[in-house]
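User: Assemble these into one structure.

Assistant: Restating your components, then the assembled model:
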Amino acid sequence: MPEPKRRSEKSRKAIYDAALALVAEIGYPRTTIEGIAARAGVGKQTIYRWWNSKADVLLEAFLDLGEQAEQAARGEGAEPRQYAIPDTGDLAADLKAVLRATVDELRDPKFEAPSRALAAEGLVDAELGRVFVAKLLEPSLQLYVDRLRAAQKAGQVRPEIDPRIALELFVSPLAQRWLQHTAPFSYAYTDTLVDYALYGLAPR
Amino acid sequence: MPEPKRRSEKSRKAIYDAALALVAEIGYPRTTIEGIAARAGVGKQTIYRWWNSKADVLLEAFLDLGEQAEQAARGEGAEPRQYAIPDTGDLAADLKAVLRATVDELRDPKFEAPSRALAAEGLVDAELGRVFVAKLLEPSLQLYVDRLRAAQKAGQVRPEIDPRIALELFVSPLAQRWLQHTAPFSYAYTDTLVDYALYGLAPR
DNA sequence: CGCTGACGAGACGCTCCGTATCGCCAAGCT
DNA sequence: AGCTTGGCGATACGGAGCGTCTCGTCAGCG
């Protein structure tokens, strides 16, 4: 309904910053739209004009944060849009390296608070859940699909395996341990997951 | 602080019923303590006297529901406290059967709304999360640990495998698909998970 | 340069929160 | 059986945050 051409870029950024800061400082449940507006030096209406809920605000803020980090990491060069999983020819080593990096990332408190809050809200709010999965989760999972397909061509993964299911053998356990704190996660743990998934539980 | 001896059993049950009904009917976020009290025909203070939050109420209500279902299923006989995973000697078949039953259970709308709400709240509320994992999740996972250990004795699982990690290869993917709707789940899917986990992704 | 519409600010009615305070009545002790 | 105690349903309370609406103001487009 509003006119995007006249939208204030400054307010938009200020709202992102305020939302991320508040969620990190006082937690998602105690973060309010009124609080975000006050912190951003913005009228409430400006938030209600462009977003439907505080979850929407946080989701966009987090996506924006990701894009910024991506651009910063990329430097000046204009490279292809998405990172990829390394392919040294050794599938187990590549997967272990990526999962170790993921462990580090998940431990970064800057990412932890908002992504945990969004995951939680996505479980209960179906619409938000769809966007969360589509915009944040699936693109990452697709990288594993690609790497596993390459491994299939190299004969390191059986050809009849469905990569979209296979990746869940190591990604989902890590996600669950992180989200639900069912057990601690470490490099040793993710390494073990890769070994179990590649070579199976049964005797060979 | 209050005196449990004088506690009204009738009110307690009425509050459980009201909480479960409201969560199923209007969803967790729109369920309020005032609403539960009104529906149960109970004063608000009676809820605040015995519980700290609506999540606490729902958690106890859900646990109570589980105990009722367990007793009903058990019938008159006084059997050991917990169900177990069948052991026909065929590990793959046993796991597939249990996971198929789990799929059915997760699809039951009576369980879906409250358990999903509790899982979501547990992601953000650390204290509730601990109780949720300890009281609801871990006891179920322990059954898999037991079954996998039996399989190790029978030589169907390599002896150096850690069962607590191994079970995550098929349980976590199912949990994630259910919670986050990342992809549909079916009998074919859970069967595939068991096959991948037992025999691995790499050529044998 | 003149319009238009987003902007910051804040008032509004509303719902729900969590607390306090009523008699009332049933459980538990003597 | 009588008395005391404390949980009970009910309701009022102040406060927080919701989402809407309405002010001038002012920046950007044509």
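The domain at 4-74 of chain B is CATH 1.10.357.10 (Tetracycline Repressor; domain 2).
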